Amino acid sequence: MRAQMLRRLGVWVLLAAFGMMFCACAGNGADLGQEKPGKEETDMTSLIDSMTQSPFRDDSLNTQELGLTAPENVGVDRERFETEIRYPVAEDAALSSDAIFSVKKEEGTEGLLRILEAARECNRRGKQVKIKLPAGEFRLSMSGVTAGETYLLQVQGFDGLHIEGSGTTLVMENDGSQWLGFFEFSDCKNVYMQDVALDYAVAPVLAGTLTSLDTQNMEAEVALEEEFLDTWGEYGEVKLKSYVEVGSNNAPYPDGNFYYDSGDAQGITSCVFKEGTAKIRFNGTLNKTPLGTKVSLALTMYGNNAIHFEGCENMHLETVRVYTCPGMGITAMKCNGLYWNRANVMLKEGSARLMTATADAMHLTSCTGDVIISNCLIENTHDDGINIKAGFYMSVNSVSYSSGKVVLDGYSDENLPLKEGDQIEIYTDKLEYVTTLTATSVQSSGRNYAIFPSEDIFDVTEGMYAVNVSVSPDFVYENNIIRNKRNRGMLIQVRGAVIRNCTFSNIAHGSINVISELATGAREAMMPRDILFENCKF
User: Fold this and answer.
1) 3-state secondary structure at position 219
2) Residues 443-460: pLDDT tens digits?
3) Distance between CA 67 and CA 10 in Å, rounded?
Protein backbone atom coordinates (compact mmCIF):
# COMPACT_ATOMS: atom_id res chain seq x y z
CA MET A 1 0.00 0.00 0.00
CA ARG A 2 2.81 2.40 0.97
CA ALA A 3 4.70 1.69 -2.24
CA GLN A 4 1.58 2.15 -4.35
CA MET A 5 0.79 5.45 -2.64
CA LEU A 6 4.34 6.69 -3.15
CA ARG A 7 4.23 5.82 -6.84
CA ARG A 8 1.00 7.79 -7.27
CA LEU A 9 2.25 10.73 -5.24
CA GLY A 10 5.56 10.60 -7.02
CA VAL A 11 3.98 11.09 -10.42
CA TRP A 12 1.77 13.90 -9.08
CA VAL A 13 4.57 15.77 -7.33
CA LEU A 14 7.01 15.43 -10.19
CA LEU A 15 4.46 16.65 -12.75
CA ALA A 16 3.39 19.59 -10.58
CA ALA A 17 6.81 20.60 -9.40
CA PHE A 18 8.67 19.96 -12.67
CA GLY A 19 6.48 22.44 -14.50
CA MET A 20 7.29 25.06 -11.90
CA MET A 21 10.96 24.21 -11.67
CA PHE A 22 11.49 24.36 -15.43
CA CYS A 23 10.67 28.07 -15.26
CA ALA A 24 12.57 28.60 -12.02
CA CYS A 25 15.81 27.05 -13.17
CA ALA A 26 15.97 29.14 -16.31
CA GLY A 27 15.89 32.21 -14.07
CA ASN A 28 18.29 31.19 -11.33
CA GLY A 29 21.10 29.78 -13.43
CA ALA A 30 20.80 26.14 -12.34
CA ASP A 31 21.63 23.61 -15.08
CA LEU A 32 20.16 20.16 -15.49
CA GLY A 33 22.59 17.61 -14.08
CA GLN A 34 24.69 20.21 -12.25
CA GLU A 35 25.93 18.80 -8.95
CA LYS A 36 25.55 20.78 -5.73
CA PRO A 37 28.66 20.31 -3.60
CA GLY A 38 28.09 19.19 -0.05
CA LYS A 39 24.47 18.16 -0.52
CA GLU A 40 23.38 14.55 -0.42
CA GLU A 41 20.92 13.37 -3.06
CA THR A 42 17.37 13.32 -1.67
CA ASP A 43 15.54 10.01 -2.07
CA MET A 44 12.05 9.80 -3.59
CA THR A 45 10.21 9.13 -0.31
CA SER A 46 11.79 12.11 1.45
CA LEU A 47 11.13 14.34 -1.54
CA ILE A 48 7.44 13.40 -1.67
CA ASP A 49 7.00 13.80 2.09
CA SER A 50 8.57 17.24 2.04
CA MET A 51 6.63 18.40 -1.01
CA THR A 52 3.23 17.23 0.23
CA GLN A 53 3.32 17.73 4.00
CA SER A 54 4.21 21.41 4.24
CA PRO A 55 3.45 24.57 2.25
CA PHE A 56 6.98 25.84 2.92
CA ARG A 57 10.29 25.48 1.13
CA ASP A 58 12.73 22.85 2.35
CA ASP A 59 16.34 23.97 2.00
CA SER A 60 17.62 20.45 2.65
CA LEU A 61 16.25 19.03 -0.61
CA ASN A 62 18.65 18.17 -3.44
CA THR A 63 18.05 15.96 -6.45
CA GLN A 64 19.35 15.77 -9.99
CA GLU A 65 18.06 12.26 -10.70
CA LEU A 66 14.29 12.78 -10.27
CA GLY A 67 13.67 15.51 -12.83
CA LEU A 68 13.95 18.46 -10.43
CA THR A 69 16.92 20.80 -10.59
CA ALA A 70 16.13 22.98 -7.55
CA PRO A 71 13.41 21.46 -5.35
CA GLU A 72 14.66 23.51 -2.39
CA ASN A 73 13.21 26.61 -4.11
CA VAL A 74 9.64 25.26 -4.38
CA GLY A 75 7.03 26.64 -2.00
CA VAL A 76 6.69 29.50 0.46
CA ASP A 77 9.62 31.08 2.30
CA ARG A 78 8.52 30.59 5.91
CA GLU A 79 10.57 33.35 7.50
CA ARG A 80 9.29 35.96 5.05
CA PHE A 81 5.73 34.67 5.36
CA GLU A 82 5.72 34.98 9.14
CA THR A 83 7.89 38.02 9.87
CA GLU A 84 8.57 40.23 6.84
CA ILE A 85 7.31 43.82 7.16
CA ARG A 86 7.17 45.67 3.85
CA TYR A 87 4.82 48.65 4.18
CA PRO A 88 4.84 49.94 7.77
CA VAL A 89 3.00 53.04 8.93
CA ALA A 90 5.14 56.09 9.60
CA GLU A 91 6.88 56.43 12.95
CA ASP A 92 5.44 59.06 15.29
CA ALA A 93 8.71 60.99 15.09
CA ALA A 94 8.26 61.47 11.35
CA LEU A 95 4.97 63.33 11.84
CA SER A 96 3.90 66.57 13.47
CA SER A 97 2.65 66.07 17.01
CA ASP A 98 -0.66 67.73 16.11
CA ALA A 99 -1.11 65.24 13.24
CA ILE A 100 -1.30 62.18 15.49
CA PHE A 101 -4.77 61.21 16.73
CA SER A 102 -5.57 58.48 19.27
CA VAL A 103 -8.93 56.74 19.55
CA LYS A 104 -10.21 55.57 22.92
CA LYS A 105 -12.17 52.33 23.27
CA GLU A 106 -14.96 53.90 25.30
CA GLU A 107 -15.65 56.41 22.52
CA GLY A 108 -16.66 53.64 20.10
CA THR A 109 -17.87 54.40 16.59
CA GLU A 110 -18.70 58.03 17.34
CA GLY A 111 -15.21 58.66 18.62
CA LEU A 112 -13.59 56.99 15.63
CA LEU A 113 -15.72 58.99 13.18
CA ARG A 114 -14.90 62.21 15.02
CA ILE A 115 -11.18 61.39 14.88
CA LEU A 116 -11.43 60.61 11.15
CA GLU A 117 -12.95 64.02 10.50
CA ALA A 118 -10.34 65.83 12.62
CA ALA A 119 -7.57 63.94 10.83
CA ARG A 120 -9.06 64.86 7.46
CA GLU A 121 -9.06 68.56 8.36
CA CYS A 122 -5.42 68.31 9.43
CA ASN A 123 -4.56 66.41 6.24
CA ARG A 124 -6.19 69.12 4.11
CA ARG A 125 -3.65 71.54 5.55
CA GLY A 126 -0.93 69.48 3.89
CA LYS A 127 0.16 67.26 6.78
CA GLN A 128 0.45 63.50 6.82
CA VAL A 129 -1.72 62.18 9.64
CA LYS A 130 -1.83 59.09 11.83
CA ILE A 131 -4.80 57.53 13.60
CA LYS A 132 -3.80 55.21 16.44
CA LEU A 133 -6.33 52.52 17.32
CA PRO A 134 -6.56 51.02 20.81
CA ALA A 135 -5.01 47.63 21.55
CA GLY A 136 -7.14 44.50 21.80
CA GLU A 137 -10.82 44.23 20.91
CA PHE A 138 -12.44 47.52 19.86
CA ARG A 139 -16.21 47.18 19.45
CA LEU A 140 -18.01 49.43 16.97
CA SER A 141 -21.72 50.08 17.12
CA MET A 142 -23.91 50.24 14.00
CA SER A 143 -26.23 52.80 15.60
CA GLY A 144 -26.80 55.82 13.43
CA VAL A 145 -26.27 53.93 10.17
CA THR A 146 -28.76 55.21 7.61
CA ALA A 147 -30.65 53.08 5.13
CA GLY A 148 -28.74 52.30 1.97
CA GLU A 149 -25.25 52.59 3.47
CA THR A 150 -22.97 49.66 2.72
CA TYR A 151 -19.91 50.55 4.84
CA LEU A 152 -19.62 51.53 8.48
CA LEU A 153 -16.50 53.69 7.97
CA GLN A 154 -16.19 55.83 4.85
CA VAL A 155 -12.74 57.33 4.37
CA GLN A 156 -12.55 59.96 1.63
CA GLY A 157 -10.06 62.38 0.17
CA PHE A 158 -6.93 61.69 2.26
CA ASP A 159 -3.41 62.09 0.92
CA GLY A 160 -1.06 60.65 3.51
CA LEU A 161 -3.05 58.67 6.10
CA HIS A 162 -1.59 56.13 8.51
CA ILE A 163 -3.93 53.86 10.50
CA GLU A 164 -1.95 52.09 13.20
CA GLY A 165 -3.33 49.19 15.18
CA SER A 166 -1.74 47.56 18.17
CA GLY A 167 -2.97 44.00 17.96
CA THR A 168 -6.34 45.66 17.31
CA THR A 169 -9.47 43.70 16.39
CA LEU A 170 -12.35 45.87 15.23
CA VAL A 171 -15.62 44.06 16.00
CA MET A 172 -18.82 45.30 14.40
CA GLU A 173 -21.69 44.97 16.88
CA ASN A 174 -24.34 43.61 14.53
CA ASP A 175 -27.25 41.29 15.33
CA GLY A 176 -27.56 39.36 12.08
CA SER A 177 -30.48 41.43 10.76
CA GLN A 178 -28.28 43.93 8.86
CA TRP A 179 -24.93 43.59 7.16
CA LEU A 180 -22.33 46.26 6.44
CA GLY A 181 -18.77 46.32 5.22
CA PHE A 182 -16.11 47.91 7.43
CA PHE A 183 -14.02 50.36 5.38
CA GLU A 184 -14.61 52.14 2.09
CA PHE A 185 -11.65 54.24 0.94
CA SER A 186 -12.44 56.57 -1.96
CA ASP A 187 -10.32 59.17 -3.75
CA CYS A 188 -7.44 58.60 -1.31
CA LYS A 189 -3.68 58.59 -1.88
CA ASN A 190 -0.77 57.20 0.10
CA VAL A 191 -2.74 55.34 2.76
CA TYR A 192 -1.15 52.83 5.16
CA MET A 193 -2.99 50.46 7.51
CA GLN A 194 -1.09 48.15 9.87
CA ASP A 195 -1.89 45.52 12.51
CA VAL A 196 -5.69 45.60 12.32
CA ALA A 197 -8.13 42.67 12.29
CA LEU A 198 -11.80 42.82 11.29
CA ASP A 199 -14.58 40.69 12.75
CA TYR A 200 -18.33 40.66 13.42
CA ALA A 201 -20.15 40.08 16.68
CA VAL A 202 -22.58 37.94 14.70
CA ALA A 203 -20.75 36.32 11.81
CA PRO A 204 -22.51 35.72 8.49
CA VAL A 205 -21.13 32.17 8.57
CA LEU A 206 -21.82 29.34 10.96
CA ALA A 207 -21.03 25.66 11.17
CA GLY A 208 -22.26 22.38 12.51
CA THR A 209 -22.33 18.61 12.09
CA LEU A 210 -24.51 16.61 9.71
CA THR A 211 -26.96 14.57 11.81
CA SER A 212 -29.45 13.52 9.14
CA LEU A 213 -29.38 13.28 5.35
CA ASP A 214 -32.41 12.15 3.33
CA THR A 215 -31.36 11.86 -0.32
CA GLN A 216 -34.85 10.85 -1.43
CA ASN A 217 -36.71 13.80 0.11
CA MET A 218 -33.78 16.17 -0.37
CA GLU A 219 -33.47 17.16 3.28
CA ALA A 220 -30.57 17.57 5.70
CA GLU A 221 -30.28 18.41 9.37
CA VAL A 222 -27.21 20.04 10.86
CA ALA A 223 -26.55 20.36 14.60
CA LEU A 224 -25.09 23.83 15.11
CA GLU A 225 -21.88 24.39 17.03
CA GLU A 226 -22.39 25.91 20.46
CA GLU A 227 -20.97 29.34 19.64
CA PHE A 228 -23.81 29.95 17.17
CA LEU A 229 -26.73 28.88 19.39
CA ASP A 230 -27.38 32.18 21.17
CA THR A 231 -28.02 33.94 17.86
CA TRP A 232 -29.35 31.25 15.56
CA GLY A 233 -30.49 28.34 17.75
CA GLU A 234 -34.19 29.38 17.77
CA TYR A 235 -34.14 32.00 15.03
CA GLY A 236 -36.68 30.34 12.74
CA GLU A 237 -36.66 30.56 8.95
CA VAL A 238 -33.69 32.22 7.25
CA LYS A 239 -32.52 32.76 3.70
CA LEU A 240 -29.53 30.44 3.48
CA LYS A 241 -27.02 31.44 0.82
CA SER A 242 -24.66 28.47 0.83
CA TYR A 243 -24.23 24.93 2.17
CA VAL A 244 -20.81 23.29 1.93
CA GLU A 245 -19.74 19.94 3.39
CA VAL A 246 -16.23 20.02 4.83
CA GLY A 247 -13.75 17.20 5.32
CA SER A 248 -10.40 16.89 7.04
CA ASN A 249 -8.08 19.88 7.37
CA ASN A 250 -11.10 22.17 6.89
CA ALA A 251 -11.01 21.39 3.18
CA PRO A 252 -14.08 20.77 0.97
CA TYR A 253 -15.34 17.20 1.43
CA PRO A 254 -14.48 15.09 -1.65
CA ASP A 255 -17.68 14.56 -3.66
CA GLY A 256 -19.60 16.24 -0.85
CA ASN A 257 -22.77 18.25 -1.27
CA PHE A 258 -22.51 21.89 -2.19
CA TYR A 259 -25.40 24.27 -2.81
CA TYR A 260 -25.62 28.01 -3.05
CA ASP A 261 -28.20 30.61 -3.95
CA SER A 262 -27.55 30.87 -7.67
CA GLY A 263 -31.01 32.00 -8.71
CA ASP A 264 -31.47 28.78 -10.72
CA ALA A 265 -34.23 26.23 -10.29
CA GLN A 266 -31.87 24.02 -8.36
CA GLY A 267 -30.76 25.35 -5.02
CA ILE A 268 -31.62 25.73 -1.35
CA THR A 269 -35.39 25.71 -0.96
CA SER A 270 -35.63 26.56 2.74
CA CYS A 271 -33.73 26.62 6.02
CA VAL A 272 -35.12 26.76 9.56
CA PHE A 273 -33.02 27.20 12.70
CA LYS A 274 -34.82 25.56 15.60
CA GLU A 275 -33.72 23.73 18.74
CA GLY A 276 -30.07 24.23 17.82
CA THR A 277 -30.51 22.51 14.47
CA ALA A 278 -30.59 23.77 10.90
CA LYS A 279 -33.26 21.93 8.92
CA ILE A 280 -32.58 22.42 5.22
CA ARG A 281 -34.50 21.45 2.09
CA PHE A 282 -32.93 21.36 -1.36
CA ASN A 283 -34.14 21.25 -4.94
CA GLY A 284 -31.73 19.02 -6.83
CA THR A 285 -29.81 15.90 -5.88
CA LEU A 286 -27.86 14.96 -2.77
CA ASN A 287 -24.86 12.66 -2.51
CA LYS A 288 -24.89 10.24 0.40
CA THR A 289 -22.24 11.63 2.71
CA PRO A 290 -21.55 10.16 6.15
CA LEU A 291 -23.28 11.48 9.24
CA GLY A 292 -20.87 13.44 11.39
CA THR A 293 -19.51 15.35 8.38
CA LYS A 294 -18.81 19.00 9.12
CA VAL A 295 -21.02 21.54 7.34
CA SER A 296 -20.39 25.21 6.65
CA LEU A 297 -23.43 27.48 6.26
CA ALA A 298 -23.48 31.10 5.08
CA LEU A 299 -26.25 33.69 5.29
CA THR A 300 -24.72 36.19 2.88
CA MET A 301 -22.70 36.02 -0.31
CA TYR A 302 -22.04 39.24 -2.23
CA GLY A 303 -22.54 42.93 -1.59
CA ASN A 304 -20.83 43.98 1.67
CA ASN A 305 -17.05 43.78 1.54
CA ALA A 306 -14.71 44.10 4.49
CA ILE A 307 -12.38 46.67 2.87
CA HIS A 308 -12.98 48.44 -0.44
CA PHE A 309 -10.73 50.87 -2.34
CA GLU A 310 -12.30 53.01 -5.07
CA GLY A 311 -10.40 55.45 -7.26
CA CYS A 312 -7.37 55.43 -4.93
CA GLU A 313 -3.62 55.59 -5.43
CA ASN A 314 -0.80 53.88 -3.53
CA MET A 315 -2.79 51.94 -0.93
CA HIS A 316 -0.80 49.88 1.55
CA LEU A 317 -1.93 47.08 3.85
CA GLU A 318 0.50 45.56 6.34
CA THR A 319 -0.57 42.68 8.59
CA VAL A 320 -4.31 43.15 8.18
CA ARG A 321 -6.60 40.22 8.99
CA VAL A 322 -10.16 39.67 7.78
CA TYR A 323 -11.75 36.91 9.86
CA THR A 324 -15.12 37.00 8.15
CA CYS A 325 -17.31 39.39 6.18
CA PRO A 326 -20.74 39.41 4.54
CA GLY A 327 -19.27 39.70 1.04
CA MET A 328 -15.77 39.86 -0.40
CA GLY A 329 -12.74 40.33 1.81
CA ILE A 330 -10.60 43.07 0.20
CA THR A 331 -11.62 44.71 -3.07
CA ALA A 332 -10.35 47.50 -5.30
CA MET A 333 -11.83 49.32 -8.28
CA LYS A 334 -9.94 51.66 -10.61
CA CYS A 335 -6.99 52.13 -8.27
CA ASN A 336 -3.37 52.83 -9.19
CA GLY A 337 -0.78 51.15 -7.01
CA LEU A 338 -1.78 48.47 -4.49
CA TYR A 339 0.79 47.15 -2.02
CA TRP A 340 -0.57 44.48 0.32
CA ASN A 341 1.65 42.44 2.62
CA ARG A 342 0.16 39.86 4.97
CA ALA A 343 -3.37 40.92 4.04
CA ASN A 344 -4.89 37.71 5.35
CA VAL A 345 -8.41 36.42 4.87
CA MET A 346 -8.24 33.71 7.48
CA LEU A 347 -10.20 31.68 10.01
CA LYS A 348 -10.31 33.14 13.50
CA GLU A 349 -8.34 31.08 15.99
CA GLY A 350 -10.60 29.36 18.51
CA SER A 351 -13.77 29.75 16.42
CA ALA A 352 -15.78 26.85 14.97
CA ARG A 353 -16.33 28.75 11.70
CA LEU A 354 -15.43 26.91 8.52
CA MET A 355 -15.70 29.84 6.08
CA THR A 356 -14.11 33.29 6.03
CA ALA A 357 -15.30 35.60 3.24
CA THR A 358 -18.67 34.55 1.84
CA ALA A 359 -17.47 35.54 -1.64
CA ASP A 360 -13.95 36.26 -2.99
CA ALA A 361 -11.04 36.88 -0.63
CA MET A 362 -9.73 39.56 -3.03
CA HIS A 363 -11.37 41.05 -6.10
CA LEU A 364 -9.44 43.65 -8.14
CA THR A 365 -11.09 45.37 -11.09
CA SER A 366 -9.50 47.79 -13.58
CA CYS A 367 -6.50 48.59 -11.37
CA THR A 368 -3.29 49.90 -12.92
CA GLY A 369 0.35 50.34 -11.98
CA ASP A 370 1.87 48.06 -9.36
CA VAL A 371 -0.34 45.42 -7.78
CA ILE A 372 2.00 43.61 -5.39
CA ILE A 373 0.53 41.06 -2.98
CA SER A 374 2.83 39.10 -0.69
CA ASN A 375 2.97 36.81 2.36
CA CYS A 376 -0.81 36.37 2.55
CA LEU A 377 -2.86 33.51 3.96
CA ILE A 378 -6.09 33.06 2.00
CA GLU A 379 -8.29 30.24 3.25
CA ASN A 380 -11.82 28.87 3.32
CA THR A 381 -13.48 31.53 1.19
CA HIS A 382 -16.70 30.75 -0.64
CA ASP A 383 -15.47 32.07 -3.99
CA ASP A 384 -12.14 32.96 -5.62
CA GLY A 385 -9.02 33.44 -3.57
CA ILE A 386 -8.22 36.36 -5.86
CA ASN A 387 -9.87 37.56 -9.05
CA ILE A 388 -7.83 40.18 -10.90
CA LYS A 389 -9.19 41.59 -14.14
CA ALA A 390 -8.81 44.57 -16.41
CA GLY A 391 -10.13 45.48 -19.84
CA PHE A 392 -13.72 44.30 -20.23
CA TYR A 393 -14.77 43.44 -23.76
CA MET A 394 -16.45 46.12 -25.83
CA SER A 395 -18.51 45.71 -29.01
CA VAL A 396 -17.71 47.21 -32.39
CA ASN A 397 -20.82 49.27 -33.13
CA SER A 398 -19.83 50.66 -36.49
CA VAL A 399 -16.88 51.09 -38.84
CA SER A 400 -16.35 53.97 -41.26
CA TYR A 401 -13.66 52.89 -43.70
CA SER A 402 -13.67 56.24 -45.49
CA SER A 403 -12.99 58.31 -42.36
CA GLY A 404 -10.95 55.67 -40.54
CA LYS A 405 -13.29 55.67 -37.55
CA VAL A 406 -14.30 52.74 -35.32
CA VAL A 407 -17.13 53.23 -32.79
CA LEU A 408 -17.01 50.99 -29.70
CA ASP A 409 -19.68 50.30 -27.10
CA GLY A 410 -17.83 50.52 -23.77
CA TYR A 411 -20.44 48.19 -22.19
CA SER A 412 -19.33 48.36 -18.55
CA ASP A 413 -18.79 51.21 -16.08
CA GLU A 414 -15.98 49.05 -14.68
CA ASN A 415 -13.92 49.80 -17.80
CA LEU A 416 -11.36 52.58 -17.64
CA PRO A 417 -11.96 55.37 -20.18
CA LEU A 418 -10.16 55.02 -23.49
CA LYS A 419 -7.44 57.60 -24.10
CA GLU A 420 -5.10 58.59 -26.85
CA GLY A 421 -2.33 56.05 -27.41
CA ASP A 422 -4.21 53.06 -26.00
CA GLN A 423 -3.78 49.72 -27.74
CA ILE A 424 -7.10 48.13 -28.72
CA GLU A 425 -7.18 44.47 -29.73
CA ILE A 426 -9.99 43.29 -32.00
CA TYR A 427 -11.48 39.78 -31.88
CA THR A 428 -14.21 37.80 -33.60
CA ASP A 429 -17.21 36.64 -31.58
CA LYS A 430 -15.23 33.43 -30.90
CA LEU A 431 -12.34 35.47 -29.47
CA GLU A 432 -10.12 34.83 -32.49
CA TYR A 433 -7.54 37.59 -32.77
CA VAL A 434 -8.01 39.97 -35.74
CA THR A 435 -5.77 43.02 -35.32
CA THR A 436 -4.44 45.66 -32.92
CA LEU A 437 -5.40 49.32 -33.29
CA THR A 438 -3.64 52.32 -31.75
CA ALA A 439 -6.08 55.05 -30.79
CA THR A 440 -4.47 58.26 -32.12
CA SER A 441 -7.64 60.17 -31.29
CA VAL A 442 -10.59 59.36 -29.02
CA GLN A 443 -14.06 60.91 -28.84
CA SER A 444 -16.36 59.76 -26.05
CA SER A 445 -20.12 59.92 -25.69
CA GLY A 446 -21.48 58.17 -22.61
CA ARG A 447 -20.18 54.61 -22.75
CA ASN A 448 -19.39 54.83 -26.46
CA TYR A 449 -16.00 55.71 -27.90
CA ALA A 450 -15.10 56.75 -31.42
CA ILE A 451 -11.45 55.97 -32.07
CA PHE A 452 -9.33 56.93 -35.05
CA PRO A 453 -6.53 54.34 -35.28
CA SER A 454 -3.16 54.83 -36.94
CA GLU A 455 -3.51 51.36 -38.54
CA ASP A 456 -5.84 50.40 -41.36
CA ILE A 457 -9.22 49.06 -40.24
CA PHE A 458 -10.28 46.97 -43.24
CA ASP A 459 -10.30 43.71 -41.22
CA VAL A 460 -12.62 45.21 -38.60
CA THR A 461 -16.38 44.71 -38.98
CA GLU A 462 -19.46 45.54 -36.96
CA GLY A 463 -20.23 42.94 -34.28
CA MET A 464 -16.62 42.13 -33.47
CA TYR A 465 -15.23 42.59 -29.96
CA ALA A 466 -12.59 44.99 -28.73
CA VAL A 467 -10.53 45.27 -25.54
CA ASN A 468 -8.13 47.90 -24.26
CA VAL A 469 -4.95 46.02 -23.36
CA SER A 470 -3.06 49.14 -22.22
CA VAL A 471 -4.74 49.11 -18.81
CA SER A 472 -3.24 45.90 -17.44
CA PRO A 473 -1.52 46.28 -14.05
CA ASP A 474 1.97 45.05 -13.19
CA PHE A 475 0.81 42.13 -11.04
CA VAL A 476 3.18 40.29 -8.70
CA TYR A 477 1.76 37.62 -6.37
CA GLU A 478 4.45 36.06 -4.24
CA ASN A 479 4.95 33.91 -1.14
CA ASN A 480 1.24 33.41 -0.51
CA ILE A 481 -0.73 30.38 0.73
CA ILE A 482 -4.20 29.69 -0.68
CA ARG A 483 -5.93 26.68 0.81
CA ASN A 484 -9.11 24.80 1.70
CA LYS A 485 -11.41 26.33 -0.88
CA ARG A 486 -14.45 25.22 -2.79
CA ASN A 487 -13.75 27.54 -5.74
CA ARG A 488 -10.67 28.75 -7.61
CA GLY A 489 -7.45 29.82 -6.00
CA MET A 490 -6.68 32.48 -8.61
CA LEU A 491 -8.64 33.87 -11.56
CA ILE A 492 -6.18 35.81 -13.72
CA GLN A 493 -7.41 38.09 -16.49
CA VAL A 494 -4.46 40.48 -16.98
CA ARG A 495 -1.07 40.53 -18.69
CA GLY A 496 2.52 40.42 -17.59
CA ALA A 497 1.90 38.77 -14.20
CA VAL A 498 4.32 36.88 -11.96
CA ILE A 499 3.09 34.23 -9.51
CA ARG A 500 6.09 33.13 -7.49
CA ASN A 501 6.73 30.84 -4.50
CA CYS A 502 3.07 30.27 -3.66
CA THR A 503 1.41 27.14 -2.33
CA PHE A 504 -2.07 26.02 -3.39
CA SER A 505 -3.60 23.33 -1.20
CA ASN A 506 -6.99 21.55 -1.13
CA ILE A 507 -8.74 23.64 -3.78
CA ALA A 508 -11.74 21.96 -5.33
CA HIS A 509 -12.11 23.97 -8.53
CA GLY A 510 -8.53 24.36 -9.68
CA SER A 511 -5.69 26.32 -8.16
CA ILE A 512 -5.39 28.71 -11.11
CA ASN A 513 -7.66 29.82 -13.93
CA VAL A 514 -6.00 31.86 -16.67
CA ILE A 515 -9.00 32.58 -18.82
CA SER A 516 -10.96 34.99 -20.97
CA GLU A 517 -14.51 34.36 -22.09
CA LEU A 518 -17.70 35.88 -23.45
CA ALA A 519 -20.12 32.98 -23.11
CA THR A 520 -21.60 33.88 -19.70
CA GLY A 521 -22.21 37.50 -20.66
CA ALA A 522 -19.82 38.93 -18.06
CA ARG A 523 -17.35 40.00 -20.78
CA GLU A 524 -14.41 39.42 -18.47
CA ALA A 525 -11.73 40.37 -19.43
CA MET A 526 -8.67 40.94 -21.65
CA MET A 527 -6.95 37.90 -23.13
CA PRO A 528 -4.22 36.94 -20.59
CA ARG A 529 -0.65 36.81 -21.84
CA ASP A 530 2.88 36.58 -20.42
CA ILE A 531 1.97 34.95 -17.10
CA LEU A 532 4.94 33.40 -15.28
CA PHE A 533 4.44 30.73 -12.62
CA GLU A 534 7.65 30.10 -10.73
CA ASN A 535 8.53 27.81 -7.81
CA CYS A 536 4.90 27.18 -6.84
CA LYS A 537 3.65 24.12 -5.02
CA PHE A 538 0.33 22.41 -5.66
Assistant:
1) strand
2) 998 889 999 999 999 999
3) 11
